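not sure who needs this but someone in the group chat was asking about AcrR family transcriptional regulator from Lipingzhangella halophila so here u go. i didnt clean anything up, its just raw.
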Amino acid sequence: MPRTADHDERRRQVAEALLRAVAARGLARTTLIDVADEAGTSVGLVQRYFRSKSDLLRFGVEYLYERAEERIAEVELVPPVRSVLYRVTETLLPLDDERRTELAVWLEFVPATLTDPEMSRIHRDTTRRLVDGIAGGITSAQKHGELSTGVDARAEAAALVAFVDGLTMHHIATAEIFDTGMIRDALHRFIDQLFARDGRS
């Protein structure tokens, strides 16, 4: 057990070093040497856990998604559902330095999904789980009379996820326009408009 724990901890340290390196240099310019330097270890040790840069990148993006899912899991599921949706989706926005760094790195990883089948699978599966979870929340709101039953839960969940991603991208690229207060307010307005709909439009 201790050996497995040490192995997992070392992989976690290397993943965090990867995130720091990518945040500082960009994905294209980050090398295994950069990651080893950030982790304070040798290239050989990094390669012991990851046979190639591609393996390391895949682990890094999985690590990012795991951190996001852990934050969602910590959200209190206390009604009303609208408030739960606020709290869940806010965890996906770059509202503090840690998430801003993570999401800037995530934006570096996304283009790799176009050419790397495994990266594409990881991104697709994680996005599907997120949309499914939010759709479940919207369906719960309908069952509790908070939201019209005429609303298409899955379509609205997908639209909400896409909206959050757009807010993230604009904040990372143009924080002077899309500051944290603005993107939080925009998110709340989006959800409020959903709950104000009668489902017939």
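also The mean pLDDT is 90. if thats useful
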